[in-house]
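Researcher: Next sequence.
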Amino acid sequence: MNNVSKVFSNGTLALKGMSLDVRGGEFISLLGPSGCGKSTALRIIAGLGAASSGSIDWPSSKINSHGLPEGDVGFVFQEPTLMPWETVFGNVHLPLKLRGVRKAEARDKVMENLTSVGLADFADAYPRELSGGMKMRVSIARALVTRPKLLLMDEPFAALDEITRQKLNDDVLTLWQQTGITVIFVTHSVYESAYLSSRIVVMRARPGQVFTDLEIAQPAVRDGAYRVSEFYRANCQKVSDALQSAIQSAES
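Model: Next structure:
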Protein backbone atom coordinates (compact mmCIF):
# COMPACT_ATOMS: atom_id res chain seq x y z
CA MET A 1 0.00 0.00 0.00
CA ASN A 2 1.50 3.30 -1.10
CA ASN A 3 0.00 6.43 0.49
CA VAL A 4 -3.54 5.02 0.21
CA SER A 5 -6.50 7.22 1.14
CA LYS A 6 -10.20 6.38 1.02
CA VAL A 7 -13.11 8.82 1.06
CA PHE A 8 -16.61 7.31 0.97
CA SER A 9 -19.48 8.87 -0.97
CA ASN A 10 -20.91 10.37 2.25
CA GLY A 11 -17.68 12.30 2.77
CA THR A 12 -16.22 10.04 5.48
CA LEU A 13 -12.42 9.93 5.33
CA ALA A 14 -11.69 6.31 6.28
CA LEU A 15 -7.99 6.10 5.41
CA LYS A 16 -5.44 8.86 5.02
CA GLY A 17 -2.04 8.25 3.47
CA MET A 18 -1.71 4.65 4.66
CA SER A 19 1.44 2.84 3.55
CA LEU A 20 2.24 -0.78 4.31
CA ASP A 21 4.89 -3.17 2.99
CA VAL A 22 4.24 -6.90 3.30
CA ARG A 23 6.97 -9.53 3.08
CA GLY A 24 6.28 -13.03 1.83
CA GLY A 25 5.45 -15.58 4.55
CA GLU A 26 4.57 -13.04 7.24
CA PHE A 27 1.55 -13.26 9.54
CA ILE A 28 0.51 -9.62 9.96
CA SER A 29 -2.32 -8.42 12.18
CA LEU A 30 -3.99 -5.04 11.64
CA LEU A 31 -5.00 -3.84 15.10
CA GLY A 32 -6.79 -0.66 16.05
CA PRO A 33 -9.92 0.87 17.59
CA SER A 34 -13.31 0.23 16.03
CA GLY A 35 -13.88 2.31 12.90
CA CYS A 36 -10.19 3.00 12.26
CA GLY A 37 -10.28 1.59 8.73
CA LYS A 38 -8.79 -1.89 9.22
CA SER A 39 -11.48 -3.65 7.20
CA THR A 40 -11.50 -0.87 4.60
CA ALA A 41 -7.76 -1.34 4.08
CA LEU A 42 -8.22 -5.10 3.75
CA ARG A 43 -11.02 -4.74 1.20
CA ILE A 44 -8.94 -2.34 -0.89
CA ILE A 45 -6.06 -4.83 -0.88
CA ALA A 46 -8.53 -7.53 -1.97
CA GLY A 47 -9.92 -5.42 -4.78
CA LEU A 48 -13.36 -5.28 -3.14
CA GLY A 49 -13.14 -1.50 -2.96
CA ALA A 50 -11.14 1.18 -4.74
CA ALA A 51 -8.70 3.60 -3.16
CA SER A 52 -9.51 7.28 -3.61
CA SER A 53 -5.79 7.96 -4.00
CA GLY A 54 -2.54 6.06 -3.67
CA SER A 55 -1.82 2.61 -5.08
CA ILE A 56 -1.58 -1.09 -4.33
CA ASP A 57 1.52 -2.64 -5.91
CA TRP A 58 1.89 -6.41 -6.40
CA PRO A 59 5.10 -8.34 -7.11
CA SER A 60 3.44 -10.15 -10.01
CA SER A 61 3.25 -9.70 -13.76
CA LYS A 62 -0.09 -11.53 -14.03
CA ILE A 63 -2.55 -8.85 -12.97
CA ASN A 64 -6.21 -9.46 -13.78
CA SER A 65 -8.91 -6.94 -14.76
CA HIS A 66 -9.58 -6.18 -11.06
CA GLY A 67 -5.97 -5.17 -10.46
CA LEU A 68 -5.16 -8.33 -8.47
CA PRO A 69 -2.50 -10.97 -9.07
CA GLU A 70 -4.22 -13.85 -10.84
CA GLY A 71 -5.36 -16.49 -8.33
CA ASP A 72 -3.06 -15.28 -5.58
CA VAL A 73 -5.55 -13.84 -3.06
CA GLY A 74 -8.01 -15.59 -0.72
CA PHE A 75 -10.48 -13.75 1.56
CA VAL A 76 -12.22 -14.87 4.76
CA PHE A 77 -15.04 -12.52 5.82
CA GLN A 78 -16.36 -11.73 9.30
CA GLU A 79 -19.28 -14.08 8.59
CA PRO A 80 -18.83 -17.48 6.89
CA THR A 81 -21.00 -16.34 3.91
CA LEU A 82 -21.80 -19.91 2.88
CA MET A 83 -24.45 -20.82 0.33
CA PRO A 84 -27.19 -22.56 2.38
CA TRP A 85 -28.42 -24.65 -0.57
CA GLU A 86 -24.97 -26.15 -1.19
CA THR A 87 -23.19 -28.85 0.77
CA VAL A 88 -19.88 -28.23 2.50
CA PHE A 89 -18.17 -29.77 -0.54
CA GLY A 90 -20.12 -27.49 -2.88
CA ASN A 91 -19.20 -24.39 -0.92
CA VAL A 92 -15.48 -25.19 -0.97
CA HIS A 93 -15.66 -26.16 -4.64
CA LEU A 94 -17.15 -22.75 -5.59
CA PRO A 95 -13.89 -20.84 -6.38
CA LEU A 96 -12.75 -23.73 -8.59
CA LYS A 97 -16.19 -23.99 -10.21
CA LEU A 98 -15.98 -20.32 -11.15
CA ARG A 99 -12.74 -21.17 -12.95
CA GLY A 100 -14.42 -23.92 -14.90
CA VAL A 101 -13.08 -26.83 -12.83
CA ARG A 102 -15.72 -29.56 -12.65
CA LYS A 103 -16.63 -31.32 -9.41
CA ALA A 104 -14.97 -34.60 -10.38
CA GLU A 105 -11.73 -32.83 -11.30
CA ALA A 106 -11.81 -30.77 -8.10
CA ARG A 107 -12.64 -33.60 -5.69
CA ASP A 108 -9.12 -34.37 -4.52
CA LYS A 109 -8.24 -30.71 -3.98
CA VAL A 110 -11.52 -29.94 -2.16
CA MET A 111 -11.18 -32.98 0.11
CA GLU A 112 -7.55 -32.10 0.84
CA ASN A 113 -8.63 -28.67 2.05
CA LEU A 114 -11.52 -30.06 4.08
CA THR A 115 -9.11 -32.51 5.69
CA SER A 116 -6.75 -29.65 6.56
CA VAL A 117 -9.52 -27.95 8.57
CA GLY A 118 -10.82 -31.19 10.12
CA LEU A 119 -14.06 -31.41 8.15
CA ALA A 120 -13.49 -34.30 5.70
CA ASP A 121 -16.34 -36.24 7.35
CA PHE A 122 -18.76 -33.34 6.79
CA ALA A 123 -18.36 -32.93 3.03
CA ASP A 124 -22.01 -33.87 2.41
CA ALA A 125 -23.45 -31.80 5.27
CA TYR A 126 -25.27 -28.50 4.77
CA PRO A 127 -24.36 -25.24 6.56
CA ARG A 128 -27.51 -25.45 8.73
CA GLU A 129 -26.11 -28.66 10.23
CA LEU A 130 -22.84 -27.08 11.35
CA SER A 131 -21.75 -25.10 14.40
CA GLY A 132 -20.44 -21.55 14.05
CA GLY A 133 -16.85 -22.71 14.31
CA MET A 134 -17.36 -25.41 11.70
CA LYS A 135 -18.91 -22.90 9.28
CA MET A 136 -15.87 -20.68 9.66
CA ARG A 137 -13.59 -23.64 8.94
CA VAL A 138 -15.51 -24.22 5.72
CA SER A 139 -14.96 -20.56 4.83
CA ILE A 140 -11.22 -20.93 5.46
CA ALA A 141 -11.06 -24.11 3.34
CA ARG A 142 -12.88 -22.29 0.52
CA ALA A 143 -10.41 -19.38 0.67
CA LEU A 144 -7.45 -21.77 0.48
CA VAL A 145 -8.71 -24.13 -2.24
CA THR A 146 -7.14 -22.06 -5.04
CA ARG A 147 -3.76 -22.17 -3.24
CA PRO A 148 -3.44 -18.38 -2.87
CA LYS A 149 -0.16 -16.78 -1.85
CA LEU A 150 -1.95 -14.17 0.28
CA LEU A 151 -4.80 -14.89 2.71
CA LEU A 152 -6.83 -11.90 3.96
CA MET A 153 -8.94 -12.48 7.10
CA ASP A 154 -11.38 -9.86 8.35
CA GLU A 155 -12.08 -10.56 12.06
CA PRO A 156 -13.18 -14.11 11.23
CA PHE A 157 -13.48 -15.31 14.83
CA ALA A 158 -14.95 -12.24 16.55
CA ALA A 159 -18.45 -13.72 16.96
CA LEU A 160 -17.28 -17.08 18.33
CA ASP A 161 -16.95 -18.20 21.95
CA GLU A 162 -13.49 -18.07 23.49
CA ILE A 163 -12.80 -21.82 23.40
CA THR A 164 -13.74 -22.11 19.72
CA ARG A 165 -11.79 -18.96 18.93
CA GLN A 166 -8.63 -20.31 20.54
CA LYS A 167 -8.98 -23.62 18.68
CA LEU A 168 -9.38 -21.84 15.34
CA ASN A 169 -6.42 -19.58 16.14
CA ASP A 170 -4.33 -22.74 16.54
CA ASP A 171 -5.76 -24.20 13.31
CA VAL A 172 -4.89 -21.06 11.33
CA LEU A 173 -1.36 -21.02 12.76
CA THR A 174 -0.90 -24.65 11.73
CA LEU A 175 -2.12 -23.94 8.18
CA TRP A 176 0.15 -20.88 7.96
CA GLN A 177 3.18 -22.88 9.10
CA GLN A 178 2.41 -25.80 6.79
CA THR A 179 1.71 -23.79 3.64
CA GLY A 180 4.07 -20.83 3.96
CA ILE A 181 1.20 -18.54 2.94
CA THR A 182 1.25 -14.82 3.75
CA VAL A 183 -1.59 -13.73 6.06
CA ILE A 184 -3.05 -10.30 6.82
CA PHE A 185 -5.47 -10.65 9.74
CA VAL A 186 -7.80 -7.92 11.03
CA THR A 187 -8.65 -8.07 14.74
CA HIS A 188 -9.76 -5.89 17.67
CA SER A 189 -8.09 -8.24 20.15
CA VAL A 190 -4.67 -7.48 21.65
CA TYR A 191 -4.47 -11.07 22.90
CA GLU A 192 -5.33 -12.64 19.55
CA SER A 193 -2.88 -10.46 17.64
CA ALA A 194 -0.05 -11.17 20.11
CA TYR A 195 -0.70 -14.91 19.89
CA LEU A 196 -0.92 -15.21 16.10
CA SER A 197 1.33 -12.63 14.56
CA SER A 198 4.90 -12.31 13.47
CA ARG A 199 4.17 -8.59 13.01
CA ILE A 200 1.44 -6.27 14.29
CA VAL A 201 0.49 -3.02 12.54
CA VAL A 202 -1.25 -0.72 15.05
CA MET A 203 -3.52 1.85 13.41
CA ARG A 204 -4.72 5.25 14.57
CA ALA A 205 -8.40 6.09 14.92
CA ARG A 206 -10.15 7.34 11.77
CA PRO A 207 -8.83 8.47 9.43
CA GLY A 208 -6.83 5.27 9.54
CA GLN A 209 -3.08 5.20 9.06
CA VAL A 210 -0.21 3.24 10.52
CA PHE A 211 0.73 4.40 14.03
CA THR A 212 3.44 1.84 14.74
CA ASP A 213 4.71 -1.43 13.31
CA LEU A 214 5.76 -4.10 15.84
CA GLU A 215 7.85 -7.18 15.12
CA ILE A 216 6.72 -9.95 17.48
CA ALA A 217 9.23 -12.62 18.44
CA GLN A 218 7.43 -15.95 18.82
CA PRO A 219 8.46 -19.40 20.06
CA ALA A 220 8.50 -22.29 17.60
CA VAL A 221 5.47 -23.81 19.35
CA ARG A 222 2.46 -21.73 20.37
CA ASP A 223 0.05 -23.71 22.51
CA GLY A 224 -1.76 -23.70 25.85
CA ALA A 225 1.51 -23.40 27.76
CA TYR A 226 2.50 -20.36 25.72
CA ARG A 227 -0.83 -18.67 26.47
CA VAL A 228 0.03 -18.59 30.19
CA SER A 229 3.74 -17.83 29.78
CA GLU A 230 5.52 -14.67 30.89
CA PHE A 231 6.78 -14.23 27.32
CA TYR A 232 3.23 -14.07 25.97
CA ARG A 233 2.16 -11.71 28.78
CA ALA A 234 5.04 -9.38 27.92
CA ASN A 235 4.08 -9.41 24.24
CA CYS A 236 0.47 -8.59 25.14
CA GLN A 237 1.63 -5.71 27.32
CA LYS A 238 3.81 -4.30 24.54
CA VAL A 239 0.95 -4.46 22.05
CA SER A 240 -1.56 -3.03 24.54
CA ASP A 241 0.73 -0.08 25.31
CA ALA A 242 1.11 0.63 21.58
CA LEU A 243 -2.65 0.53 21.06
CA GLN A 244 -3.28 2.91 23.97
CA SER A 245 -0.68 5.30 22.58
CA ALA A 246 -2.38 5.20 19.18
CA ILE A 247 -5.77 6.00 20.76
CA GLN A 248 -4.32 8.85 22.85
CA SER A 249 -2.52 10.34 19.85
CA ALA A 250 -5.81 10.52 17.97
CA GLU A 251 -7.59 12.12 20.92
CA SER A 252 -4.92 14.82 21.24
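Model: The mean pLDDT is 91. The longest strand covers residues 2-7.
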